[in-house]
Design goal:
It is a single chain. The chain contains 3 helices and 7 strands, in the order H-E-E-E-H-H-E-E-E-E. The protein has one domain (about 10-155): Chemotaxis protein chec, CATH 3.40.1550.10. Strands 1, 2, 3, 4, 5, 6 and 7 form a 7-stranded antiparallel β-sheet that branches. The longest helix is centred in the middle third of the chain and has 25 residues, at about 85-110. The model has no long low-confidence stretch (mean pLDDT about 90). Helix content is about 35%, strand content about 30%. It has helices at about 10-25, 65-75, 85-110, and strands at about 30, 45-50, 55-65, 115, 120-125, 135-145, 145-155. The chain has about 160 residues and is α+β, with helices and mostly antiparallel strands.
Length: about 160
């Protein structure tokens, strides 16, 4: 059985996120190297919980509002500048988060860290996430169509 210290969460998310954005929205999301600042601006964020006997945590997908609407239009097959209803935006951000979280959950299970996921929730605004010391936080920054977005994961072994 693996542990989160041995699990390459950064590498896995660096593969999962571009695959999800390519598959769902036909756009290229590229991981950015170097110092990553925590997301602290107005945004639309999806979150999903991951839990099992040996692992627990959460995954967040943080998208700037305008970019989230642009991606929603791409996924829904709408013109890029079409207005997006809040319900549609929530559905798209929730589904992107579900797919990113599902990819990570699958990779954790493959590594012997059996777990399950919660349903996604969507949060809007500028907020901070305080991470307890027991969790291993990873924040990845991605570039896509001239925009920057973040994926944040916090995991720990029980």
């Amino acid at each position: 059985m693996s542990s989160t210290n041995e699990f390459d969460m950064r590498g896995r998310l660096g593969t999962i996120v571009p695959n999800v954005f390519s598959t769902m929205a036909s756009v290229a999301a590229t991981p950015q190297e170097g110092a990553v600042e925590k997301p602290n601006k107005e945004r639309v964020s999806g979150t999903i919980g991951i839990a099992g006997e040996t692992v627990t945590g959460a995954v967040y997908v943080h998208l700037p509002d305008g970019f989230a609407r642009q991606i929603a239009n791409a996924i829904l097959g709408n013109p890029p500048d079409q207005a997006v209803a809040d319900g549609d935006l929530n559905d798209v951000v929730g589904e992107l988060t579900n797919m990113v979280g599902g990819g990570l959950k699958s990779a954790l299970c493959d590594a012997g860290l059996r777990c399950a996921m919660s349903t996604p929730s969507v949060i809007r605004g500028a907020f901070a996430i305080d991470v307890p010391n027991a969790l291993r936080p990873e924040i990845l920054q991605f570039s896509c169509q001239g925009q920057t977005f973040f994926v944040e994961a916090h995991l720990k072994c029980a």
